[in-house]
């Protein structure tokens, strides 16, 4: 497979999805999901549109957030999030985008992140470089946490699960002792793209959904960043969390995570 050619075809398909994405801003909930999560009619329509176009143009099946699809361990599979940051999107915030990753036998090898309201789109194949609006970007330099913006996922302090709310509070508290520049954008895909672009020095995701991460993992790695889970193991589609950061910052955040203790202790 020619990854650059596949990305070029996929980019045209995402460009075609921008108009309905922008037109549907502030769309209301159409499908209730687990907890207080939901999908809008725009999520569903864009997924159908992009899936049909990708299969026709590339011959590669798609695993989407809303309708599922091909298995993630297929020889080749696209992974699609039609609207990342759905709460933001429905509320009218511009912090939302379309995420598309390509897995080869479970390994992320290409990624596309479209941020239509901000006028930014990012693409990359695994060996780089990161492309922003079609222009190659420089590799990430080593940085220090004290000088960096850090993105983090949203949560309730009283929530339970794999990463309880009180554990997340402790992580952010400990991070704040070295960086007072924590940011909560409400979009994992945006956070990862901004790590790749050097806007954020690092980002922590307590989530496990492959469609939130696959595209951004490639962007960060192509830019020379590091992506692991919160335990420091290389990120894979089976990972239950993610830590993406520039060299230097990643090691500092990982040390803070380790000093915070195990999530089950909270």
From TrEMBL:
UniProt catalytic activity: a myo-inositol phosphate + H2O = myo-inositol + phosphate
Keyword Metal-binding tagged: yes
Enzyme class per UniProt: hydrolase
Chain sites annotated for binding Mg(2+): 65, 81, 83-84, 212
Recorded GO MF terms: inositol monophosphate 1-phosphatase activity; metal ion binding
Keyword Oxidoreductase: no
EC number: 3.1.3.25
Reported cofactor(s): Mg(2+)
One Pfam family named in its UniProt record: Inositol_P
Gene Ontology terms describing biological process: inositol metabolic process; phosphatidylinositol phosphate biosynthetic process; signal transduction
InterPro entries: Inositol_monophosphatase-like, Inositol_monophosphatase_CS
Entry keywords, A to Z: Magnesium, Metal-binding
Protein name: inositol-phosphate phosphatase
Natural source organism: Mycobacterium asiaticum
